[in-house]
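Trying the structure run again after the queue cleared.
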Amino acid sequence: MLANHYFLVRDYERAAIAYEAVIDKTSRSKAIRKKIIICYVKTFQMEKALTEFCKLVEEDIHFIINSDLKADDCPYKEIITEIENDEIYFGGDEKNLVLGILWLYCDLQSALKYFDSYFRSNSNNPDLERAYQIIQTYNQPIN
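Done. Tokens:
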């Protein structure tokens, strides 16, 4: 698939376009949606990233949390480091939101830390709030 090729060579803009075409023509593959979220973040299309992220969390949070960093061949942690060091710039609260999303692929506790920071000053997106509640619930021990 051409989209996967673009993703592997880190051409996120072309990958996003190709993945969108696949999503439009076929089923809503969770693997493709997980990758397109990364593409949208890397191309600063945050509205689209949030929409897909919220839907995927509601549908199957395990699919994100149980990401296989090697098998996915996605530089999640490298992207996180670039954002944390402002090599890729997201301002203020948006930075916390993006890091929360990306960390969810790698480490639940780190994701929660960034989502908590984001939600201290933001609560205006009902879909994101629902996704956040699911993430928090996932973190709760089962009695």
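The domain at 2-139 is CATH 1.25.40 (Serine Threonine Protein Phosphatase 5, Tetratricopeptide repeat). Worth checking whether this holds up in the mutant runs.
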